[in-house]
Design brief:
It is a single chain. The protein is of the alpha/beta class and about 200 residues long. The chain has one domain (about 1-185): P-loop containing nucleotide triphosphate hydrolases (Rossmann fold, 3-Layer(aba) Sandwich), CATH 3.40.50.300. Helices cover about 55% and strands about 15% of the residues. The chain has helices spanning about 15-25, 30-40, 45-55, 65-75, 75-105, 115-120, 135-145, 150-155, 165, 180-190; strands at about 1-10, 30, 110, 125-130, 170-175. Strands 2-3-1-4-5 form a 5-stranded parallel beta sheet, with helices on both faces. Helix 2 (about 30-40) packs across helix 5 (about 75-105). It is globular. The relative contact order is 0.21.
Length: about 200
């Protein structure tokens, strides 16, 4: 079984690359962000954050308000670190469990895991593909898809490990500055050539 992780720049197209590869190899796709979203509904996890931030992070149905979490963690490095210290180990553990379950039926598994280097690369990941794109292109995508300003994109990226450190740690680098057909061609060409 080969477990391949997809990571990269914000707005570079990690989800698109993940879906293309999962379809190409007819294999399962696991998404760390979706697992994180599930964890916010776990009572033990919710209670940890309620204890730290109070019940203002809950809506009237007692669900976590994502904007309240973002407001706390993306404006305060200490809160960001605290949040990750709780979620990252749980996400990695759950990914490992699901990979083991899926590995019985599938030769390959694709993981979309944006913060793999920040969380610590798990030993069950065999290869890492880094999806990169120029800042201006990513800024346009983030504005269209998320409503983020350039300032907001830069602010969020300031919490992450610099790409200059992550790219050399990756096995492959895929540039996604153009359209879908160019991206598919890039995947075909580069997946056979390790990043040096």
């Amino acid at each position: 079984m080969a477990v391949v992780a997809i990571t990269g720049d914000i707005g570079a197209g990690k989800s698109k690359v993940s879906k293309i590869l999962a379809e190409k190899f007819s294999c399962p796709l696991l998404n760390a962000d979706l697992i994180a979203a599930e964890l916010w509904h776990d009572e033990k996890v919710k209670n940890i954050f309620i204890s730290r931030w109070g019940e203002k992070i809950l809506d009237t149905s007692e669900n976590i308000i994502k904007s309240e979490i973002s407001r706390r963690i993306f404006f305060d490095p200490d809160e960001y670190k605290f949040c990750n210290s709780i979620l990252h180990p749980l996400i990695i553990k759950e990914l490992g469990v699901r990979c083991e379950e899926l590995g019985v039926k599938s030769k390959n598994i694709i993981l979309e895991i944006p913060l793999i280097f920040e969380a610590g690369v798990p030993d069950f990941v065999e290869k890492i593909i880094y999806v990169a794109a120029d800042f201006d292109i990513r800024a346009k995508r983030c504005f269209v898809q998320r409503g983020w300003s350039v300032k907001e994109l830069k602010r969020r990226e300031s919490f992450l490990m610099p790409r200059e450190k992550k790219i050399p740690l990756s096995d492959y680098v895929i540039e996604n500055n153009e359209g879908l057909e160019e991206l598919k061609k890039e995947l075909e060409e580069k997946l056979l050539t390790p990043n040096s």
